[in-house]
Amino acid sequence: MVAPQQDLLERLIRDCGQGWIIDFFGDPARALAALEKLLGETTVAYRRRYPHPSPVPSVESLAEEHDRNPHRVKAFLQALSASPSPEMLVMVWRILQGDVINQLRVDYLAEQIFSLELQLAGDDGSIQSFASSNIDDAALLRHLGIMKMAGRPLFDGFYPMQHSSRD
Amino acid sequence: MIARTDIIVPAPLAPALALDASVRTIVRHWPDAVIVDGEDKQVFHRHRDVPFRKLTDIMVFKDRHSLNDWREHGPTSSNINSMINLVWLDNQLTIVVDDASDPAIQGIIEGIKSILRQPIFNIAA
After folding, report:
1. Which of B33, B42, B120, B124 has the most CB atoms around it within 10 Å of its CB?
2. Whole-complex ipTM
3. What is the residue-level pLDDT of chain A in tens, covering all 167 positions?
4. Cβ(B60)–Cβ(B66) under 8 Å?
5. Is B90 left (phi over 0), alpha (psi -120 to 50) or beta?
6. Which of A143, A147, A164 sits opposite B25 (nearest CB)?
7. Cβ pairs A/B, distance under 8 A
């Protein structure tokens, strides 16, 4: 029997055109359970960092957001499939909620070192740093908005790949 | 009467995605911006609360004071370049501003154009 949360998560994943995330590994039920577990750990990690009231990355929040901003949910689900780190997923969620990327550092030496560090600033003035030494998390960088503001460089926003004009 | 300028940006993207990224860019310039649904005039004080899926016409005011000034007086010389109107129609975004030669407005327009032309937005499913 599939838990209601898992059922909702599967519907969101498929509605966002990301069914491959759970079909790719041959055992969709097992993949879905793993994603739900990771999302649950992300919720816990989020509450630890941001104890004040704010939208929490959970299946329910994703469902609500999907009605209003499906592209944001698609971007988050793509991150969920790419990163095994609840902390990095908290970072993604905060960027989607509007946090500014203050600082980003990548250190890499072939077959020896990967280090990713980001610092976010919230609209309440809060500053939080996130770090990873897992190169899988480099996939998250592909989603960052890249732009120039008055000629100055800026990473801003977290966007889905392979969008559809129907989204 | 204040003349307004339309800047048209071709962007064959999901409307919600294009409007979200554009409003986010404006908020970077105007951190106290107030966002208004151009159709039903619903007001949003935070970018994250805007339901972009339901919108095609958005007014972004520089701050609450600018919104009140517009409500009271309409477009006047005193509130010039304090509101940007974004309209989505037929795979293009129209950015409506008062004075497109203003360096601050130019910076915002440049930002919107640069975010909408980045490659990940243009890889269709």
Report:
1. B33
2. 0.89
3. 457 888 999 999 999 999 999 998 788 889 999 999 999 999 999 999 998 888 899 999 999 999 999 999 999 999 999 999 999 999 999 999 999 999 999 999 999 999 999 999 998 888 999 999 999 999 999 999 998 888 889 999 999 986 555 55
4. no
5. left
6. A147
7. 103
